[in-house]
Write a sequence for this structure.
């Protein structure tokens, strides 16, 4: 039931070495496109599933180049002849790369001690690409991960980076930076970034990644949660905190990258309750998190209680809920322990014992968006929802959607029903309408408003709502449209307004309608 016991390298961020290494990686064409072209789509998919046989065969069939050497070492985690490594690092020099902690040399073979791979992305500032160092994964190690493992790019990484609000600000805090990827993304929209972590190894790797990619303006600090920034405030806080719920039982590994050392979801609660003290008025936070469902207590109700008495707007979106068995299996596999083994079964038992003792019946996962009220202002948004459906098309992530929802909440707070009735609204450009008919019928049986971007929301509409939205082209006020519809349908205007105004508020908040 123990984690791996590998000797983890000390990664040294020497600017001279990282500059030369970047030149070698660039000259080799070590990019996402370049690596994918080495072995093709099918082998890449197999590699994603933990099977590298097809990728190895594809490389074996190719002539040796610096690109194939880099892919063999750092993506597949395999050894190469020393002479090949010397050619791949002709600028930095093999000895310098070894001294930096990326490789070791045994006799005439070079072995990777870290994972180093290209990473490409698109955000509201445009397309970008970096090289990211992290620790070797289960595929390269052939065993469970070490408890001090520093995680690389994963699904949660890209989710949070895409959730960051793409609005320029002065200072950003990346709480629990890991390999530094969120701090690097934040720097694209911030003058200064402070990145904290309780792992010194993680900070060393994050510092190396920033230097390797020529990114300055990030202040790396050691410490737990908000301890390194006591008394400081930020315009934005981003965090993928170590929120995984882990039994505090002897023999259960506690991984620094995911386990915060607290019982249950207490770490997420601690982080959320600490935001108000460290956000500037009007500042925002975007985080990922888990929350528990207890016997007779809804998970989102528990999260709602964490915001009581604060001046924070809160928007919590639960994207998934797992039962105790599924949750335990997910994170035990994540640590590299394989199903079907005695160790796996023992760990599942420890998780289920912990959940039973604490009356946990499920665990929710999702996004948390927070904004601190302006000085003298009041809370404008408290929204706790489940959105399990497929998201809309968001090539650059959900950051722009988050910004728009916060703006919409502020606009709605400033517009009572009288002001809303006087407003002019327009249909967002990504909204379409679906209609379904019984054969032979001229009138639709079902009408649905469909959002193409954002959260891809689908809103069932009756005739009045469909007509109202269809008339929102910015020309007429809300009141004028309702009045015209009342006259056409013969419905009392006040009754129609009482029905449509609350729905119009929801559509503005969700982005299907926008103030003209």
């Amino acid at each position: 039931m123990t984690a791996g016991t590998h000797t983890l390298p000390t990664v040294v961020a020497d600017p001279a070495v990282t500059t030369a290494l970047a030149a070698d990686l660039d000259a080799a064409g070590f990019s996402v496109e370049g690596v994918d072209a080495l072995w093709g789509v099918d082998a890449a998919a197999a590699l994603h599933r933990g099977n590298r046989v097809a990728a190895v065969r594809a490389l074996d069939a190719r002539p040796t180049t610096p690109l194939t050497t880099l892919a063999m070492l750092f993506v597949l985690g395999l050894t190469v002849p020393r002479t090949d490594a010397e050619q791949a690092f002709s600028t930095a020099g093999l000895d310098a790369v070894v001294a930096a902690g990326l490789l070791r040399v045994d006799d005439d073979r070079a072995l990777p001690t870290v994972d180093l791979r290209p990473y490409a992305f698109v955000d509201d500032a445009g397309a970008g690409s970096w090289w990211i160092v992290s620790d070797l994964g289960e595929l390269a190690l052939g065993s469970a991960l070490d408890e001090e493992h520093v995680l690389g790019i994963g699904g949660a990484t890209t989710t949070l980076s895409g959730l960051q609000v793409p609005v320029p600000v002065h200072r950003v805090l990346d709480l629990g930076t890991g390999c530094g990827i969120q701090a690097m993304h934040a720097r694209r929209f911030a003058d200064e970034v402070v990145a904290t972590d309780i792992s010194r190894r993680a900070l060393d790797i994050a510092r190396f990644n920033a230097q390797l990619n020529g990114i300055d303006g990030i202040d790396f600090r050691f410490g737990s949660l908000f301890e390194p920034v006591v008394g400081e405030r930020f315009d934005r806080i981003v965090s993928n905190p170590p929120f995984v719920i882990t039994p505090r039982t002897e023999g259960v590994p506690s991984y620094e990258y995911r386990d915060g050392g607290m019982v249950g979801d207490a770490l997420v609660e601690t982080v959320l309750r600490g935001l108000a003290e460290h956000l500037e008025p009007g500042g925002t936070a975007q985080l990922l998190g888990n929350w528990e469902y207890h016997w007779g207590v809804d998970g989102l109700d528990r999260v709602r209680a964490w915001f009581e008495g604060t001046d924070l707007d809160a928007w919590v979106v639960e994207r998934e809920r797992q039962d105790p068995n599924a949750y335990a299996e997910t994170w035990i596999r994540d640590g590299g322990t394989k199903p079907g083994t005695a160790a796996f079964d023992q760990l599942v038992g420890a998780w289920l014992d912990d959940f039973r003792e604490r009356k946990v019946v499920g665990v929710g996962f999702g996004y948390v968006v927070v904004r601190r009220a302006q000085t003298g202002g009041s809370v404008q948004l408290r929204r706790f929802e489940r959105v399990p459906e497929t998201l809309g098309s968001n090539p650059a992530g959900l950051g722009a959607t988050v910004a728009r929802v916060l703006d919409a909440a502020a606009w709605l707070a400033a517009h009572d029903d009288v002001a809303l009735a006087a407003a002019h609204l327009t249909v967002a450009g990504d909204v379409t309408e679906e209609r379904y008919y019984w054969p032979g019928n001229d009138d639709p049986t079902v009408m649905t408003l469909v959002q193409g971007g954002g959260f891809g929301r689908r809103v069932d509409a009756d005739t009045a709502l469909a007509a109202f939205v269809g008339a929102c082209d910015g020309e007429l006020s809300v009141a004028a449209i309702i009045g015209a519809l009342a006259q056409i349908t013969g419905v009392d205007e006040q009754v129609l307004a009482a029905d449509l105004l609350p729905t119009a508020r929801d559509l503005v908040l969700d982005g299907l309608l926008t103030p003209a």
About this structure: The longest helix spans residues 493-510. The two ends are 60 Å apart (CA to CA). The CA atoms of residues 176 and 197 lie 4 Å apart. The chain has a mean pLDDT of 93.
